[in-house]
Write a structure and sequence with these properties.
By secondary structure, the chain is mainly alpha-helical. A two-stranded antiparallel sheet has the order 1-2. The chain is 53% helix and 1% strand. It is elongated and about 85 Å long. The two termini are 26 Å apart. Helix 4 runs antiparallel to helix 5. The protein has 12 helices and 2 strands, in the order H-H-H-H-H-E-E-H-H-H-H-H-H-H. The protein folds into 2 domains: 145 residues, no CATH class; 128 residues, no CATH class.
Length: 308
C-alpha cells in the first residue's frame, strides 16, 4: 500500500543484512494511516486540527491512497470551513487549499482561494506574497495547484476596477453643466414656486428638482469633499505603489474615503457616497475555477464521498 520510493538495500560483504531507510514522515500521522489500513479504527482521530489534516493529505497524496480517508472526510473537513472558524491564520491559505484540492472539497477550495485572492500582494522584491508576507511561489503545495498566475492577474484586474471608481466620480462632478442663462426659469403661482424652491434647496441627483446654481453648488461641494477625502486616505495624488497592495487593503482604504466624504445638509440626496459604495461593491469577489481545476476537484470528490 505504501509505495513511496525508498533507497535500495545495501549489503555488507561480511554478512548480508538488508538496511531499508524509511521516509521521514510524521510518525503520528503515518500511524493514523496505518491504523486505517489495518482496520484499527478505534485509534483513528474523531477530530483533527487543520495542521494534522494538512499532514494527512500530504501523505495520502504521496502514497496515492486518498480514498482510505473516505469514512472520515466529511466529519474532519466540517470543522475547517469558515462556518466553524474564520479564515486568516498564518499558513492557512496553503493548508486549506491543499486539503480541499486533495479531498475534492470544492466549496472549501473556493473559499480559501478567494481569501488568498483578496489578501495577496507584492513585496519589495516584486514577488507575490500572502497576507503574512510569505512568498506563495516558495510553497510546493501551492505551486502544484497551478493557481499563481491566475492570482496575480486577478489581483491587478480587481485593483484597477476599484481604483477606477474614484476618478470616474471626480470627472463626473467636475464636468461643466448648462449655464443658468440657458435654463428656463420657474413660473407659476406663489405656492408652486415655494414648493419648487424647497425642492431646489434639497437638490437631487443631476439637479432633477433644482436649477443650475443649486446643482453647481452641490457638485462643487462634493467635488471638494471627495478630493479631500482621497487626499486624507493617501490616494490623491495616486501613489505609485498602490498596485503592490492587496485587494483587501484597497477596498478598505476606499471604504474609508467614502466615510470621509462630508455631507452638506442642503444637498443630502445627491451625495456621491451611495453611488461610490455601489460601484465598489460591484467589483467582483467571486472565484471562477478553470475547467481543469473543476474536473480535478470533482474527481477527488467522487473518490472521497463529497458532493461533486
Amino acid at each position: 500500500m505504501l509505495r513511496a520510493q525508498a533507497p535500495k538495500s545495501s549489503t555488507s560483504k561480511k554478512r548480508a543484512v538488508s538496511l531499508l531507510e524509511l521516509p521521514e514522515d510524521d510518525p503520528r500521522i503515518l500511524a493514523t494511516l496505518l491504523y486505517i489500513i489495518h482496520n484499527r479504527f478505534g485509534n483513528v482521530f474523531d477530530k483533527v486540527t487543520r495542521n494534522d489534516m494538512f499532514r494527512i493529505t500530504i501523505l495520502t497524496k504521496k502514497y496515492a491512497m486518498t480514498e482510505v480517508l473516505r469514512p472520515w472526510v466529511r466529519q474532519w473537513t466540517k470543522l475547517l470551513t469558515p462556518a466553524f472558524r474564520p479564515l486568516g491564520e498564518q499558513g492557512e491559505d496553503e493548508a486549506l487549499l491543499w486539503i480541499s484540492w486533495e479531498l475534492g472539497h470544492i466549496e472549501l477550495f473556493e473559499q480559501a482561494l478567494g481569501h488568498l485572492q483578496e489578501t495577496c500582494k507584492i513585496d519589495g522584491q516584486g514577488k507575490l506574497v500572502d497576507g503574512y508576507g510569505v512568498c506563495v511561489e516558495d510553497s510546493d503545495h501551492i505551486k502544484a495547484l497551478n493557481i499563481i498566475d491566475g492570482l496575480a492577474a486577478r489581483r491587478i484586474e480587481r485593483i484597477d476596477a476599484l481604483m477606477l471608481c474614484m476618478p470616474k466620480k471626480v470627472e463626473s462632478l467636475a464636468a461643466t453643466e448648462q449655464s443658468s442663462s440657458a435654463r428656463p426659469h420657474a413660473k407659476g403661482p406663489p405656492e408652486a414656486l415655494a414648493a419648487t424652491s424647497q425642492k431646489m434647496t434639497e437638490c437631487s441627483v443631476d439637479g432633477l428638482f433644482g436649477e443650475w446654481r443649486h446643482s453647481e453648488s452641490c457638485r462643487t461641494w462634493y467635488l471638494g469633499s471627495v478630493i479631500r477625502s482621497l487626499a486624507r486616505a493617501g490616494y490623491y495624488p495616486m501613489p505609485p505603489d498602490v498596485m503592490k497592495s492587496s485587494v483587501q487593503e484597497v477596498r478598505t482604504r476606499l471604504g474609508s474615503v467614502c466615510r470621509g466624504i462630508q455631507l452638506d445638509g442642503r444637498y443630502l440626496f445627491c451625495s456621491p457616497v451611495f453611488e461610490l459604495r455601489s460601484s465598489l461593491d460591484k467589483v467582483d469577489t467571486n472565484i471562477s475555477l478553470t475547467d481543469a481545476q473543476r474536473r480535478h476537484l470533482q474527481q477527488q470528490a467522487v473518490k472521497n464521498g463529497l458532493p461533486p
